[in-house]
Amino acid sequence: MKRFLLLLLALPVVGGLSSCSSQVEAKRPVSYHFESGKTAMLQGGLAYAPRNAPDAVKRAVAAGNRLQGKPYKWGGGHANGEDWGYDCSGTVSYVLRSAGLMKGVGTSKDYFSYGNKGEGRWITIYTRKGHVFMTIAGLRLDTGGRGGGDGPRWRPQTRSAKGTVMRHPDGL
């Protein structure tokens, strides 16, 4: 009887673990290569969405542009949608909210269940324990990762995505 009760208690835990393994982990580094009509163009520190990009993508790029030059602030963007500084999840939340793709604010942990699993065509969120960043039209928006950094910036440099899970907004 004890063994049966232990088995019953363990079932929800096992079920919960199996759903984690259904996530799509990033297998390659995040790298930016400009392709006309397919990726955002970076010029003078600002990004420009391709003309054929969906409106939500154009709004996301515009939101990312508004964050350029803001400093890293732990917890920034969480209590107040418009803040003087942003952390990683505050940055991603601000952009998705501004694009009409999310309500409220999420932490890096919350993005494990955001949208759909896998890489998106236009927007991909990369999340792991303690950090989240995104690509919009192929261009990475990131706060710099470990220990903060200098704040939300468009970053064309290649970044390892090891240990991250990819998610994307529905249809994008």
From TrEMBL:
Q: Where is this region: Disordered?
A: 144-172
Signal peptide region: 1-26
Residue ranges the record marks as coiled coil: none
Lineage: superkingdom: Bacteria
Instruction: Supply the SUPFAM superfamilies for this chain.
Output: Cysteine proteinases
User: Which keywords annotate this record?
Assistant: Signal
| Name of this chain's protein | C40 family peptidase
